[in-house]
Amino acid sequence: MDKAKKRVFSAIQPSGTLTIGNYFGALKNHVAMQEDYDCIFSVADLHAITVKQEPEKLYMHTLELYAIFLAVGLDPEKSIIFIQSHVPAHTEFTWLLNCFTQFGELSRMHQFKEKSKTHSDNINAGLFDYPVLMAADILLYNTELVPTGQDQKQHIELARNVAQRVNGIYGDILVVPEPYIPRTGAKITSLQDPSKKMSKSDSNINAFISILDEPDTIIKKFKRAVTDSEALVKFDEESKPGVSNLMNIYSCATGRSIAEIEKEFEGKGYGDFKMAVAQSVVDVLSPIQAEYKRIISDKAYMSKKFTVAAERAADIANDTLRRLKEKIGFYI
Ligand code: TRP
Question: CA 127, CA 120: separation in Å to the nearest integer?
Fold first, then answer.
């Protein structure tokens, strides 16, 4: 690995098929970062079990997400792309970091508070400890930059605080990471309720476009997308959130600017506009889906890639783990 390049770490949970929001907002950016950074990407299966999972589904979603990573262009030759539970150092490091994390600071995490409401029948210790596992993911790899969405910023802030606290006690042994919120990658919202983020776990399947949706489904969902009664393709997130969201999607899919899009659809109705947006998304997703089908049907190939990646990840992770254990005073 190139030492001159900054280390980047990010992960996504295998909790269902990703949406175009995940693609335009995160994955596409991860793919581009591989050129300039020393990147590590992980399928966060340990995080996924903080909410109830059916075993067959978790198993399938893990393989699916790994295949999607490769299909969109994350390259196992350039980056380390591994499955979190394959590197035991993550859970061991979490325990060590737990002892440097306060109950009070975990109690303040927004996501924990939200999930305690949405999963009120299963507020388990793992859900509470989720941010510490995430800190372990990040800190194990001497990560300098963590590309994520705005919703994870508080968790990264916690990882920074824990790293600084450990460094304050034992000397500078952990790298203090920075969040990296990409400039591009507009926030993609729900097609049915544009005030909400597009989410793969939305109970209304018309609210999101999955990366693996068939062209017919994509067209149908865009036709049903909520707009307004003005019949004017103009960007105004306040008074025209539905249309503005479709414009953002079209802009992400085609690379065209919002001004260019307003011009393109001057005098045209929403019917034409929606079809153009749908087609642009089909054009982006088709090659990804073809690649996905090829990869998911070749389990031996995937298995080779994630096995090698886990070994490379473990080399880095075990070194950090050992350094902290020594400092703490464990007899190694
Ligand atoms: N919690 C992150 C999410 O839901 C996923 C994640 C797990 C992650 N470990 C990470 C993201 C480490 C960045 C770095 O989006």
Answer: 11
Q: By the 8 A CB rule, do 316 and 141 touch? A: yes
In this structure, the residues whose C-beta lies within 6 A of any atom of ligand 1 are 9-13, 44, 47, 134, 137-138, 146, 148, 152
C-alpha 312: how far from its chain's center? Answer: 21
Report, as an integer, the average pLDDT of 227-247. 96
Quick check: is 327 catalytic?
no
What integer pLDDT is reported at residue 1 of this predicted model? 53
Measured from the Cα of 133, ligand 1's closest atom is: 9
- Is 197 catalytic? The answer is yes
Give the separation between CA 246 and CA 235, rounded to whole angstroms.
9
Catalytic residue among 28, 200, 240, 305: 200
Express each pLDDT in 68-106 by its tens digit.
Answer: 999 999 999 999 999 999 999 999 999 999 999 999 999
Residue bearing the CA closest to ligand 1, atom 14 = 10
For residues 116 and 127, give the distance between their C-alpha atoms in angstroms, rounded to a whole number: 8
Task: Note the pLDDT of residue 196.
Answer: 93
Q: Average the pLDDT over 285-291 and give the result.
A: 98
pLDDT of residue 103: 98
Mean pLDDT, range 204-215, rounded to an integer:
97
Determine the pLDDT at residue 201: 81
Closest CA to 128 of 161, 88, 159, 98: 98
